[in-house]
Amino acid sequence: MDPVSKETVLQQFHDTYGYPATGVWAAPGRVNLIGEHTDYNNGLCLPVALEQRTLVAAALRSDRTVRVHSRQSDETYSGSVGDIAAGWAAYPTAVVWSLAREGLPLEGIDLAVDSSVPVGAGLSSSAALTCSVALAVNDLHGSPFSRDQLVKMCIRAENEGVGAPTGGMDQTIALFARPSTALLLDCQDGSTEPIPFDLHNAGFELIVIDTRVKHSLADGQYGLRRSQCVDAAQALGVDSLREATVDQAESLSDPILRARARHVVAEIARTRQAAELLRNSRFSDVGTLFDNSHASLCDDFEVSCEELDVAVAAARRGGAIGARMTGGGFGGSAIALVPVGRGAEVTASVGREFAARGWRAPHFLTAVAGGSATRL
Ligand code: GLA
After folding, report:
1. Which of 9, 189, 225, 251 has the fewest Cβ atoms nearer than 10 Å?
2. Read out DSSP for 183-224?
3. Best residue for ligand 1 mutational test, from 31, 32, 39 (most atoms within 8 Å of Cβ)
């Protein structure tokens, strides 16, 4: 397949619908450096946008019809404004539904979608899709909504329209990322702080290890973790685990709720520390926080899996100075912080361990902190 570009998606639009698109919009996938399962606890997280992104070519229609073509599935969905499709087209159609619900006078739209964000790898291909479509629809109507509002509408599209639980980190980074920068998100007040993340100049690279597995229990477990966090906060008499202290978490009598709360409280503290270390270019110390975060997600939050644990351990043995799972867990991707020049050893080490277990070869990519969703 040709690489994803403005030209290819314009051609795809023309081939599908027989007329030219009005424009092309793009939104990035992401990796989260640290602060996992904290966003829905009003906590802190520290994602970076990837250079991999989803492109959407779009043009308005006036007959209440919504059509979406995807190059990945080579299918065209067709329905009416307000309908939510099944399968992959649920995401773009739920965005149309969500913006229309807020009063956008949308009379129909044709969309052609292509993406270089690996799907199902825990790199937020869904937020890349919802945010690129939201920006396109908004721009084509003269941009009545701010990016803050679009974040909320994309979250609602995924939560209520698609029925996919998500906390808000992915949509925020897709719409607010900056190149060579990580974003410290405070999910309590919605504020964001850019944190310098010029890895290469500091002598490091960030390798993403896509395990290429997604365990089927993932979705139910995500919802269960959310409700356990709500229960823990309730038992402590606080609005969210953001307000809990280590001592409070340790005082919970239910061992499961205690472990969940311990992870969230410690992970928020680690995220604050990581941001401070990055502000001072102390990349090597960030590695230790990655390791501690992974151990906590594995033991206390119980969202890791064998493939992620093997990837993380093998990356460390291959020379990474820290590694952890990233995203929701139960498969998907891990990240490894690696001194420049050691990347080949790290990927070889992970590849060997996967091969020795008879697992599919993992995919690797180097994360380069890219910019936010934009019109091309
Ligand atoms: C998924 C969700 C995010 C976040 C992470 C865990 O990626 O979409 O909102 O909760 O899991 O940190």
Report:
1. 189
2. EEEETTTTEEEEEE--HHHHTEEEEEEEEEEE-TTHHHHHHH
3. 39
Q: Pick the atom of ligand 1 nearest to 164's CA.
A: 8
Using the mean position of ligand 1's atoms as its centre, give its distance from the Cα of residue 327 in Å.
5
Alpha-carbon span 84 to 232, nearest angstrom:
34
Could you tell me the pTM of the whole model? 0.96
β-pair partners for 27: 54
Q: How far apart are CA 112 and CA 11, in angstroms?
A: 9
Pairwise CA distance, residues 73 & 351, whole Å: 28
Residue 316, H or E segment: helix 306-317
- Please answer whether residues 190 and 43 qualify as being in contact, where contact means their C-beta atoms are separated by less than 8 angstroms: no
- Segments of the chain assigned E as strands: 23-32, 44-45, 47-60, 65-70, 75-80, 109-115, 181-186, 191-196, 204-214, 322-326, 331-339, 363-367, 374-375
List Cβ neighbours of 170 (8 Å cut-off, separation of 6 or more). Answer: 30, 47, 124, 126, 127
For the CA of 222, the closest atom of ligand 1 is: 11
Is residue 310 domain-shared with residue 162, that is, in the same domain? no
Closest by CA position to 164, among listed 90, 216, 106: 90
Q: Do residues 6 and 376 touch, judged by C-beta distance below 8 A?
A: yes
Helix (H, G, I), strand (E, B) or coil at 330: coil
Last residue of a domain, one of 193, 217, 244: 193
Domain carrying residue 317 = 198-367
Same domain, 357 and 267: yes
Structure tokens at 176: 């607010």
